[in-house]
């Protein structure tokens, strides 16, 4: 949720309303049950999906089976949009963390729409630039951040995407995320995540409210990711 990239810039959110509505006008509705796979890395890049309801997980896996979560995407997000740019196979796998309702736009539908509205390519270039910047941040995090810094970044990214301020600078992450998920986001062992979170809970930097993580001090957590 990057590693974790919870709030990824996407094509639909950056489009003017008239272009977004036109592109989605003939989108195909898709439902996905919790834990079901939307597509796997290597599958054909035949289009993209907009999340209307639910929660998706974007991940990659090593040959040994270790998982790395690249993003946790909620309503309003889009997944698979890079296929609109290069038409190449999927670079990551996507599955549902909870029941989802999606809208599917095929590459053919996109190309037909773009032929009538070529200005959409300007937004595709902006999307590509944003993704490159995201990649730079991921590389920097994996290369330079401490274990605590990686966990802090995971929580802060999730807070940015799903957080609600509850007063006094406190932010509740309104998604129930397991320690295993945080570990997969941060790219470290779950045991390390457990130790770090327990330390932060003891120091009242992070708390748990009805199963949700609450960041008690964003500023203190941000100090952990200073390179």
Describe it:
The protein is of the alpha+beta class and 227 residues long. Helix content is 41%, strand content 26%. The protein has nine helices and ten strands. Strand 3 (47-61) and strand 4 form a beta hairpin.
Offer a quick outline of the entry.
With 227 residues, the protein is α+β, with helices and mostly antiparallel strands. Helices cover 41% and strands 26% of the residues. The chain has helices at 11-14, 17-24, 83-86, 107-116, 120-144, 147-162, 179-186, 190-202, 218-223, and strands at 28-32, 37-39, 47-61, 67-73, 78-79, 93-106, 163-165, 171-173, 206-209, 212-215.
Keywords:
26% strand; six-stranded antiparallel beta sheet; 227 residues; 10 strands; alpha+beta; four-stranded antiparallel beta sheet; globular; single chain
């Amino acid at each position: 949720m990057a590693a974790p990239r919870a709030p990824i810039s996407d094509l639909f959110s950056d489009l003017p309303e008239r272009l977004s509505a036109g592109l989605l006008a003939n989108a195909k509705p898709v439902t996905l049950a919790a834990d079901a796979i939307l597509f796997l890395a290597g599958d054909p890049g035949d289009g993209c999906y907009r999340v209307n309801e639910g929660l998706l997980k974007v991940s990659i896996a090593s040959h040994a089976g270790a998982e790395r979560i690249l993003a946790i995407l909620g309503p309003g997000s889009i997944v698979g949009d890079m296929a609109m740019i290069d038409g190449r196979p999927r670079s990551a796998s996507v599955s549902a963390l909870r029941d989802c309702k999606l809208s599917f736009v095929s590459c053919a539908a996109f190309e037909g729409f773009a032929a009538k509205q070529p200005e959409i390519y300007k937004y595709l270039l902006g999307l590509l630039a944003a993704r490159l910047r995201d990649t730079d941040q991921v590389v920097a995090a994996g290369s330079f951040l401490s274990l605590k810094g990686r966990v802090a970044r995971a929580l802060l990214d999730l807070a940015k995407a799903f957080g609600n301020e509850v007063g006094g600078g406190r932010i509740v992450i309104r998604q129930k995320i397991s320690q295993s998920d945080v570990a997969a986001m941060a790219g470290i062992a779950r045991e390390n995540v457990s130790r770090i979170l327990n330390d932060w809970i003891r120091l009242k930097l992070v708390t748990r409210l009805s199963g949700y993580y609450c960041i008690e001090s964003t500023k203190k957590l941000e100090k952990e990711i200073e390179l």
